[in-house]
Amino acid sequence: MATDAPRLKRPSWKDPRLLIGLLLVLASTAGVIALLDSQDTSTEVYSAREDIPVGSTLSEEDFVAVPVQLGDAADTYLPVAGGFPPNAVATRLVPRGELAPSSALGTADQLDRKPVGLSVESPPPRGTSAGDRVDVWVSPRTDRNTFEEPRLLLEAAEVSELTVGESALGSRSATLVQILVGDAAMPELLDALSNEARIAVVLNPSAGS
User: Fold this and answer.
1) How would you label 169-203 residue by residue, b for 16+ Cβ within 10 Å and e otherwise?
2) pLDDT of 43-93, one tens digit each?
3) Which residues on adjacent β-strands are paired with residue 200?
4) What is the 3 state secondary structure string of 144-198?
5) What SS3 class is residue 116?
């Protein structure tokens, strides 16, 4: 007569082997989570949503928060966790997508250059943009229809903003070039503007090299 094979019992939750197995799984999971947390050293900092010219009044809406790993350079940039500084202005050009350095934000009284708009008939070459350097030449008016020989008024002035004007038919009209001017050169430039001097802006590529 054949004997019945012994039946395997379903392990009980009181079985110490089952409890030990569960503890090992939990310990392994906790170790993996701790390892991942220790390796995640990313910090959220501000990145410019669009090009930000010098002198622009800033708010948090001008930036997006991006997580980055900066290591020892973390203190160089503006952290989102620290909140956005009130009454901030751009003290230098911050191009679109660039991480915002803490040094690029300040207050209005820290600006050593101010933007001045120049309307010119002959715009700089195509591709000229904020951050490029230009020379500003002026020809003082002698009477209604004549002007003196042009002379260099500002060398390697930084372009803050450039707006190319177009007529209704698509042809170019006057272009507005915003340049950054220091206080020392401001009176002479404003005098030229008030006396309707002819102004030309010439790209100076060597100034940025």
Assistant:
1) eeeeeebebbbbbeeebeeebeebeeeebebbbeb
2) 889 999 999 988 889 999 999 999 988 777 778 888 998 889 999 999 888
3) 137
4) CCCECCCEEEEEEEEEEEEEEEECCCCCEEEEEEEEEEECCCHHHHHHHHHCCCE
5) strand
